[in-house]
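Researcher: I need the complex structure. Ligand is coenzyme A. Inputs:
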Amino acid sequence: MANYKYIDTEVKDGILTLTIDREDKLNALNKATLEEIGEAFQEIYDDSDVKAVVIIGSGERAFVAGADIAEVSELNEVNGRKFAEVGQEVFASIEKCDKPVVAAVHGFALGGGCELAMACHIRIASRSAVFGQPEVNLGLIPGFGGTQRLPNLVGRGRALEIMMTGDTISAERAYEIGLVNQLVEDKAALVDYCERLLKKITSKAPLAIGMVVDCVNAAYEAEENGYQTEANSFAACCKSRDFVEGTQAFLEKRAPQFTGE
Ligand code: COA
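Model: Output:
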């Protein structure tokens, strides 16, 4: 992986930890950080050594405290649209990644931080996590896909309330409403839990994991028929080596050895 200025990447046992590294600004996403995340995901798509990804914030206080308000304050109609489009594109590349991506959330996950967590496939949070979409306090709305993803995760009424009030949501409440998959005690437990979760997922057939992502995403694409995507993906699984290996291993009462082919 390349060297980046605002993010740090480290691969261990096939799991890439992508750390947002602007601790003095509570890991706020300036344009450069956003672009670096996008570039890192292009590398992740192509790097066969990377089997899974955890996204986490540096330091103890924040996952990501939102888009960088110093930069946001300078936006006009033209570059504001561009900023939202770049953010949406980068976050879509996370959501569409064929390798599992988990958000490990501790501390503030506000605005673009909450949206970044929502673009990941799974969210795990420590009890210190604080979620929210406070853009209305700035005369703005979420611009990196939040208006679309939040209703899918927590329901339309709750999403509207969260985005209209700008209120923060505790980790416990986020768990209650389905915004996060699992709560753990602290940052150390968070890292440990995410690693164990990803080890489990990466022990399954990689092609099938990628196709699950594809099919679930198809349900949210207006121009796609999710059932058709599912049938096509199911058929593609049936001609894979991993399908032969998985079914044979079951019948032979042994553990499967998947190769992703
Ligand atoms: N953009 C730019 N800088 C940010 C930021 C953001 N979204 N969030 C925090 N920071 C910076 C602060 O300006 C401060 O920098 P400084 O030390 O150079 O002044 C530093 O991070 C620490 O934040 P601070 O506000 O002093 O910490 P706090 O504990 O008092 O408050 C928050 C923490 C998260 C409640 C507060 O920083 C906040 O409300 N941030 C903005 C959240 C937001 O509206 N996000 C959506 C943006 S679209």
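Model: Summary of the prediction. The mean pLDDT is 97.
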